[in-house]
Amino acid sequence: SMRNQLQHDMGCWGSSLQRINAAAQQREANCSHYAKSTGKIEVEKQAQEDRKLEREERHQQRRMELHFARRDIGRARQQQRVVQELEQQVAQKERQKGMKRFQQDLERQQVLQATRTAMESDFIQLHKKRAE
């Protein structure tokens, strides 16, 4: 009887062990199926999110490059305007100097002409006095 009981218990444990092994195999199959389906979906979602972040990063980088390019163009324009303004100021100074020189030359010619006229007049008067 004890032997029968022991054999019966051994059979039950064997059956339990088979059920446990079957459940473990089923669990492994489930985990594998999860990894292949849901896990794959999660990996794909992560890859999609990574691609989205990369796109956004490239877009932001292009925006920054465009901003810096526009800023550089604006600086170049401003610099060009400053150079043009300075060139105009230099040209204006040169015109003023030219006008001043022209005016001085004109005054010098007038003084020379007046001196020449006065000398000629004095010479004519002196000549008239000697002739008398």
Account of the protein in words:
The chain is mainly alpha-helical and 132 residues long. 98% of the residues lie in helices and 0% in strands. It has 2 helices and no strands. It has helices at residues 2-36, 38-131. The longest helix has 94 residues, at 38-131. The chain is rod-shaped and about 190 Å long. It starts with a helix and ends with a helix. The model has no long low-confidence stretch (mean pLDDT 90).
- Indicate the overall shape: rod-shaped
Which percent band covers the strand fraction?
Answer: under 5%
Which whole number gives the mean pLDDT? 90
**How many strands in all?**
0
> Which percent bin holds the helix content?
over 70%
Which residues form runs of ≥5 with pLDDT under 50?
none
Q: What structural class do the secondary elements suggest?
A: mainly alpha
Largest sheet report: none
Return Rg in Å. Answer: 55 Å
The count of helical stretches stands at 2
Amino-to-carboxy terminus distance = 189 Å
Q: Provide the succession of SSEs.
A: HH
TL;DR of this structure?
The protein has 132 residues and is mostly helical. It is built from 2 helices and no strands.
Features of the shown structure:
mainly alpha, 98% helix, 132 residues, 2 helices, single chain
Chain-wise SSE layout:
Elements: H1 2-36, H2 38-131
Helix pairs in contact: 1-2
